[in-house]
Amino acid sequence: MLSEGDSLLEAPQAFAERNAIPFKDVLLLSRALTHRSYLNENPEAIEDNERLEFLGDAVLDFVVGAWLYRHFPEMSEGEMTRLRAALVRTEQLGEFAVAIDLGRALRLGRGEEEHGGRTRPAMLCAAFEALIGALYLDSGIEAVEAYMDAMLADAVVHIHAGNHDHDPKSLLQEWVQARGHAAPSYKIVAESGPDHDKFFEVEVSVGGQPIARGEGRNKQSASKVAARTALTQLQEREMAE
After folding, report:
1. How far apart are the C-alpha atoms of 100 and 51, rounded to whole Å?
2. What are the beta bridge partners of residue 216?
3. Is the pLDDT assigned to residue 80 strictly greater than 80?
4. Which residue among the candidates 48, 129, 138, 203 is catalytic per the annotation?
């Protein structure tokens, strides 16, 4: 079991600084990082993170729902419900925890340590919920919203990218709206061929700026090619920045 003095166990303040999380109450953060198994073996520890986990679960439901409502004004209630469920499921919250290397700062008992608790999705999910609950108590809902914004934007793209039922135009629209832009616009810039065998070229723009073009045997297929190309280009630009 890692101890407080073990260099492999990250201190709460160091964890907060590394992830740019504005915690004022380090003891509250420490509680969020403390699993009940650690409390059982270390009587000097005051409280585990289970109550914070309960609170964080509720805060995440609200923050994610509000984020979707603001960023996707044209999305139906059913689609928002489905997407929220995907964003707060155990596996996704566990991925958020992995992205910030939360496991490195967890305080676990010997048994949990030996059974890989630092990398188990359910454990990481619970700890991430506790972290969000603690951040809410420490700095308010606005701090949680600011901290989750970029995470949610990236997660939405990945969720839809793995869903082949979503066409490229939907994926592009969700990607740009998640970043505060208006929905993409499409226009036919060229067409050729006889009426029974036309060929179309469509240009897609974001924020009034042309991004990409696509060609196809009909307007819809050309629009999809343009949207797929635009999404790839925008994602590559963001990664390069």
Report:
1. 22
2. 200
3. yes
4. 129
Cα–Cα–Cα angle for 120, 125, 128, rounded to 5 degrees: 125
Phi/psi at 190 (5° precision): -165, 150
| Pair 214, 222: CB distance under 8 Å | yes
Task: Look up residue 183 and give its DSSP letter.
Answer: P
Structure tokens at 139: 């700095």
Q: Say whether 57 is catalytic.
A: yes
Residues in the chain: 241
pLDDT at 7: 44
Q: How far is CA 191 from CA 5, 9, 64, 154, 215, in A?
A: 70, 63, 43, 36, 9
On the CB side of 166, CA atoms within 13 Å amount to: 20
- 158 with 218: CB under 8 angstroms? no
Domains of the chain and CATH, by start: 12-161 (1.10.1520.10), 169-240 (3.30.160.20)
Query: Are 189 and 171 within 8 A, CB to CB?
Result: no
Phi-psi region of 30 (alpha: psi -120 to 50; beta: other; left: phi over 0): alpha
Res 213: pLDDT: 93
Q: Which of 47, 57, 79, 113 is catalytic?
A: 57
The residue with greater pLDDT, 132 or 125, is 132
Backbone angles phi, psi at 163, to 5 degrees: -110, 105
pLDDT value at residue 194: 72
Say what the pTM is.
Answer: 0.66
The predicted pLDDT at position 206 comes to 93
- 108: helix, coil or strand? coil
